[in-house]
Amino acid sequence: MTQKNGYNLGGVLYLIGKGGKKGFPFRIRLQKLVLLGKIEDSFPFSFEYESHYYGPYSVQLQSILVDMVTDGLINENVIATGEENSGFIYSITEKGQLKLANLSLSETETKKLDNLWIRYMNKSTDYIIKKAKEISGIKSISDK
Description:
alpha+beta; two-stranded antiparallel sheet; about 55% helix; about 15% strand; globular
């Protein structure tokens, strides 16, 4: 595994693990939070982003999430968020925790992710989407 992939996998696993027993709420939030960590905190995520329904979106990040579910590193649970809407809650598995430990993120890297978590996890999804659009300059498809 390349170092770049190790940062991508390790950083995403670490953030999902921060959700604890309740899990990490929502794919949209994770997409934006990873982007904010890359730009604001210089965490070495290498995901590329493009315009999508809710602003910046990474196909690569979505692909890693699918792979992590398939490999048993994380669980993905669908929950109802409204009459016609649903969302995905992610939680790290024991296998994922072992993988994360083997990736050995440095204290500096985990501190960046901890600070990112502290800044944004009590913010609304709408706030995080708006912030990601502002910082990246990538708008929603409908904004163009």
